[in-house]
Amino acid sequence: MFPTVSHFLEYLFGIQIPLPFNTFGVFVALAFIAGYWAFTKEMQRKESLGILHPRKRTYVIGKKATTTEMVINGIFGFLIGYKLVYALINYSLFVYDAQTVLLSTKGNILGGLAFAGLFIYWDIQEKNKHKLDRPKNVEVTEYPHQLMGNLIVWAAVWGFLGAKIFDNLEHWDTFIQDPIGGLLSFSGLTFYGGLICGGAAVIIIARKNGIKPLHMLDVGGPGMMLAYSVGRIGCHMSGDGDWGIVNLNPKPFSWMPDWLWAYTYPNNVAMEGVKIPNCVGKFCFELPQPVYPTPLYEVIAAFAIFLILWQIRHKIKLPGMLFGIYLMFNGLERFLIELIRVNTKYHVGDIAFTQAELISSILFISGLVMVIFAIKNKEKHANY
After folding, report:
1. Which of 13, 42, 317, 321 fits as disulfide partner to 374, beta carbons 3.0 to 4.6 Å?
2. Which residues contact 92 (CB under 8 A, 6 or more apart)?
3. Is-contact 272 285, C-beta < 8 A?
4. Is residue 135 a contact partner of residue 61, using CB atoms and an 8 Å limit?
5. How far apart are the C-alpha atoms of 95 and 16, rounded to whole Å?
6. pLDDT tens by residue, 324-382
7. Does residue 330 belong to any structural domain of this protein?
8. Which of 51, 79, 62, 226 has the alpha carbon at shortest distance from 145?
9. DSSP secondary structure string, 281-306?
10. Are residues 270 and 287 in the same domain?
11. Are 290 and 307 a contacting pair, CB within 8 Å?
12. Which of 139, 160, 195 is the last residue of a domain?
């Protein structure tokens, strides 16, 4: 396993480069990039078909930097400098435990002040380049795909919060022992929490910008499936605990690699299992028995679903139908993987289920309802 990028580089090239990047975080970033690409392409396609329309906006140009802008830039610059300079001075600690460095109150005040001044100076200089004797209003045409930068930022913020909230609800006993640590930790993220909260934020912002909810949902279906596939690569490569149940069964095919059938996740970032002999460093644990590498199965399944959605999106004309199909695929894939995945069980009477099984069942049913609704309201949606 590769808990950090440094471990991965050492495995590939045999060199040790101390970098403060964990593998899971890198793949989360790549997942957002993949989603951004797919969202943008689909928005542009719908723009060319006349489904999504540009809007006229009026902006004031030629103004000098305001006090409010300078204060905001100064605060932002201070926070960056406060942490960045401290991290560089304490680089060994930053590499060993970036989370503690970033989330603690420790920092470098001089570095913060220097960056605050730099950001304020940059803001003033940029505004002075375009300053006019008399500021004027300019009308600009904005296309929906140009909103993607803003949408991705809000999806990331609310997606992270949702993922943390749902994960802490799923592991309530651990959360109540250390609620602050549970909320601030970078580890422990539940996909469905991120999907629900991040998706809700995107829908709200898109609607405020004139994009109807059903069209935005259709745009998001394939992109979210692609992002999920990429993100799960990070789960597998880092060994973040999203693995399956113990698998001691013989391989069904002799040609299948052992790691594709049963794996012990050595050096996993979750630091679960038994100590690896002669291992030095922070990540020196592996599972005592091999388990199903469920993140890898989800990588394959999610990418296959993305390809299907990407292929059929040209043929589906009814608003909401593509997203309904996405929900059905998503719910079915996750429900099936839960059958061999380690997870917290809830009990209602004699029925035992996981949080993901419950939500995936609701998503499948919701998707089916959306598909039926789209078909039954074909004429109504013709002008949607």
Report:
1. 321
2. 18
3. yes
4. yes
5. 12
6. 999 999 999 999 999 999 877 777 777 878 878 888 899 999 999 999 999 988 766 55
7. no
8. 51
9. SS--EE-SS-B--HHHHHHHHHHHHH
10. yes
11. no
12. 139
How far apart are the C-alpha atoms of 333 and 282, rounded to whole Å? 34
Q: Tell me whether residue 356 is in a domain.
A: no
| Statement to judge: residues 48 and 63 lie in one domain | no
* Rounded Cα distance, 36 and 127, in Å: 29
Residue where a domain stops, chosen among 289, 318, 347: 318
User: What's the domain range around 71?
Assistant: 59-139
Number of domains in the chain: 2
Q: What is the pLDDT of residues 297-325, one digit of tens each?
A: 999 999 999 999 999 999 998 999 999 99
- 44 with 179, same domain: the answer is yes
Summary mean pLDDT of the chain:
87
Rounded Cα distance between 112 and 77, Å, is 7
- Taking the C-alpha atoms of residue 357 and residue 172, their distance in angstroms, rounded to an integer, is 18
Residues 108 and 211 occupy one common structural domain: no
